[in-house]
Amino acid sequence: MYFNHFIIYICKIITNTNVKMVLEIRIGNFFSIKDEIVLDFRAANIKSANARALSNNLFDFNKTPILKTIAIYGANASGKSNIIKAIRFCNALVFESHQHNENTIYNFQPFKFNGYSGKPSTYFIRFVSKGIEYEYSYSLTQQKIISESLYFYPKGRIKEIFTRDERLGKAKKEKYSFGDQIKRPMDVAENTSEKTLYISRASQMDREIGKEIFNYFHSQFILDYVGFGASAIETLSNQNRKQLIEAIKIADSDIIDVKIKVLKKAGKHYKADAQTMTLTVEDVVQDYLQIRTFHKASPSTAFDFLTEESQGTIKLFFIMLTILDVVKHNKVLLIDEIEDSLHPKIIEYLFNIFRTGIRAQLLCTTHNTRFLNLKNVRKDQIFFANKNQDGSTDLYSLYDYSDFRDTMDLEKAYLQGRFDAIPFMNDSNEKIKSLFDGQ
User: Where does the ATPase AAA-type core domain start and stop, copy by copy (predicted)?
Assistant: First the structure.
């Protein structure tokens, strides 16, 4: 009961005047992803009793039910992390490409087999910003942008904002076409090189729709739970201090207070590499912030947060700080391997926060089969990543298995290999003993 009141309190301060969400993402020819895969947040038409009981897993947009969370399961090396990595790269390119020079080589790899290394990689996203639906897409190689387009639905009907195809000629007027939404659009085109996304340059040149799309990707689509940077962590900690402490208490932590001191001012743009996102929390904050925690057993004794708290507590602190902001402002969050360093009950708690939120969305990968329970999740919220014979990643939903009923044991079926997406090992005693034969 206390948990529900806590989340409702957070969500009540948000109005419905700035509706934003992701509806669909399509990716092709990135890393182990060969052919296009689809992640659809628009809910399927499931009429089972279990699905009807899970209304908190959805919200409505223009009479269309939208999923709040999607979890991707798969074996190690199946490519599920590559899905997250590709989305991070593609989104980050929107708010970084205006900085690129002629020597820029994009930091992603296309699929390496079957001749795909020479083919363009593709990205498509359908999303909503300020209550209006957009379709944005582009294709590229490691050396240049090939095509780009933006459409929207201002009155429920699709309308072109711009399209671009670098293969159509040498002159800008041959490559571009425009609707009537961008002022002096060719001025932007003349300043857009093959290394730069047009929408990124349009934002830099103060075009309203360019700024709208830029801000959606930069501020609405959170690429990882450490993606804020040190200065934002300080700000968010101060803004959400009471809620943060209460949220950590709900998770059975005995921390009763947190104090943050600025050691030196952080730069404006401090983030992980768009390809690998390898920076840890310590990398982000250790030179900029001093964080002290205080515990119930001795309220006056300060703990150095980064060196004296457990890795699980550190991760919970920062992921909770991020989730509070995401849920309060109805953002989208990507997390790879959400269970890392966290107890399954804590992960369940994080899912519950999104269920209780209004329009916040979570896309994550996980190995934890405990959450494969159709009493808690809908079939269209579960996706599987599987490695094909040619080494490529396939992605499909549990909803695709029409013969799998809600009354069946999903966890057991998954571990038995019903949906593939698990490692198939020969780990018999004889096989393991053979590893050491001759030593």
Answer: 71-372
Q: Is residue 252 part of a domain?
A: yes
Give dist(CA 385, CA 395) in Å, integer: 5
Contact 68, 361 (CB under 8 A): yes
pLDDT at 276 over 60: no
Instruction: Say whether both 123 and 201 belong to one domain.
Output: yes
- Identify whether residues 130 and 181 lie together within a single domain: yes
Among residues 329, 354, 378, the one where a domain terminates is: 329
Helix (H, G, I), strand (E, B) or coil at 380: helix
Say what the pTM is.
0.89
Residues 113 and 197 in one domain: yes
Domain boundary among 196, 222, 248: 222
Burial 339-365 (b: 16+ CB within 10 A, else e): beebeeebbebbbbbbbbbbbbbbbbb
Q: Are residues 126 and 264 in the same domain?
A: no
Residues 97, 210: one domain?
Answer: yes
Residues 41, 57 contacting (CB under 8 angstroms): no
Q: For residue 170, how many other CB atoms are within 10 A of its CB?
A: 7
Residues 193 and 233 grouped into a single domain: no
What range does the domain containing 37 cover?
Answer: 18-222
| Block residue for tokens 């009354």 | 407
Average pLDDT, the chain: 88
Alpha helix segments (H runs only) across 386-428: 410-415
Please state whether beta strands 69-74 and 221-222 pair in parallel, antiparallel, or not at all (unpaired). unpaired
Instruction: Tell me the sheet residues that pair with 122.
Output: 28, 139
The identity of residue 100, as a single letter, is H
Q: Is 257 in the same domain as 290?
A: yes
Domain count, the chain: 2
Q: How far apart are CA 398 and CA 419, in angstroms?
A: 8
- Scanning 130-240, the segments in alpha helix (DSSP H) are 172-175, 185-190, 198-204, 208-215, 230-239
For 57, other C-beta atoms within 10 Å of its C-beta total: 21
Confidence band for 15, pLDDT divided at 50, 70 and 90: very low
C-beta of residue 209 within 8 angstroms of C-beta of residue 182: yes
Look at 49-63, 188-202, 282-296 and tell me which has the smallest mean pLDDT: 282-296
